[in-house]
Amino acid sequence: MSTHNVWTHKGTFLLAAVGSAVGLGNLWRFPYLTGENGGGAFILVYALTIFAVGIPILIAETMLGRNSRRSPIMGMRHLTVTHRTSRAWESIGWLGATSAFLILSFYSVIAGWALHYTWQMLTGSLAGADAETIGAGFDALLASPGLLTLYHTLFIIASGLIVGMGIHKGIESSLRIMMPSLFVILLVVLAYGIANGDFGAAASFLFTFNIADLSLEGWLQAMGQSFFTLSLGMGAIMAYGAYMSSEASLTRTAIAIAIVDTAVAMVAGLAIFSLVFGADLAPGQGPGLMFVTLPLAFAEMPFGALIGGVFFILVLGAAISSSISLIEPVAAYLVERFDLTRPQAVFAMVVASWALGLLTVVSFNLWAEGSLFHALFGRSAFDFIELLTNIFMPLGGLLIALFAGWALTPSEVMKEMRTSETWFTAWRFLVRFVAPAAVSFVFLRTIPQVDGYLIPTIGALVIVGAFAAGRTFLTESSQEQ
Ligand code: PHE
Hints:
Layout: H1 12-21, H2 24-36, H3 40-68, H4 72-82, H5 91-122, H6 131-143, H7 145-164, H8 167-196, H9 199-207, H10 216-229, H11 236-241, H12 250-278, H13 293-300, H14 304-338, H15 342-363, H16 372-377, H17 381-407, H18 410-417, H19 421-449, H20 454-480
Helix pairs in contact: 1-8, 1-12, 1-14, 2-10, 2-12, 3-4, 3-10, 3-12, 3-17, 3-19, 4-5, 5-7, 5-14, 5-15, 5-17, 7-8, 7-14, 7-15, 8-12, 8-14, 9-12, 12-13, 13-14, 14-15, 15-17, 17-19
The structure holds phenylalanine.
The site of phenylalanine (PHE) has 15 residues, from helix 1, helix 2, helix 10 and helix 14.
Transmembrane segments: 12-30, 42-64, 92-115, 150-171, 183-207, 219-243, 255-281, 301-334, 346-367, 387-408, 429-447, 453-474
InterPro entries: Na/ntran_symport, SNS_sf, YocR/YhdH-like
Membrane topology: Multi-pass membrane protein
């Protein structure tokens, strides 16, 4: 059964995909990874991967959605039938839906921190505070399972309500208000950073590169980040692509998404590092950059509490516009497959992902280092879930590239892309050779790093593989009858 839903306008897919792409990845992860990995060199690798690997896969993933006009799982099943390829490719849909579910569980917890800081900023409780107080405040937040659960719950309910209202009334209309407001706020924060901070230091930190500064680990993180930030390989783009107008251009839209997403990351980086350097703070603080270093910078600056509050509203908005794109692929599947109503499907997805999110909540306190879980698995549950998604994501991307590049018939793809011969050839080359090589490289390098995780990881892959193989076998035998 197809959903027959299409976005209201030709350009709505672009809006929705930008909403999905721009999120915590741009505002929180990109700046801190850049800070930890020495600035410019990291950005260079990141940008190269976005253009040589990210865009081609983005085009492929959107195309799979639009061509099937179904949720990722049902869509892949449909494509394997219409294109007469192995049913095993359906695993792309399953991998995507699983990753979306896993990512939502921790994404919502971290977005919840922004809720806490919005509140703290706007009530002025951090005004004039020193480094110690702010650091202690962040530690106290993480140490409280109750508070973390409260924020996580509020955030996921808000996301669920939007998706539950449907793609037009819920997703489209909220994005139409949210996205322009977010861009305005980002520019306000940038202007504030330029006026009160050290813009020169930020620009030279971000844009002077010395490739020797970048470790192998940094290379991998840069490539991983470029997937995460474009929302690739997780069914989100495929689910949104299913509603894309047939008239919109795949190539132009994908390039526009990548450019806007990269620009937002750069502007956020410039704004954040202007403030950080202006307050004489260190850029390499890791994940605490946004929640410790930045509040400290705001605490010292004029109108810091107000601008800080507005900044965290930006973070929240960007996170919600991404989290709704994580709910959609799974909810749409439940609607198509089990004939649930949309609110029922969203409810099921959100409750399950919320419950899994509790594991992330306790990873910072009850089950942190020193607990039995940590002793058994060598990491926190949050690190484990994040690691799984870091494996599924490139794997999903790899399979999408291989499917689009090798399994689909070129003439069909050419028809869907409706672009010039040259563009098509370039895209096809990237998707057949360059993207799979780059992604495999990232993927293979992650495996040895996961040492103690090798066995659970292989276990998970074997289960997915066996499932896919089982389905292939079942379909083939049922086709023979
Ligand atoms: N791209 C989002 C970000 O940068 C995260 C995300 C990943 C959203 C995958 C949807 C799917 O924050």
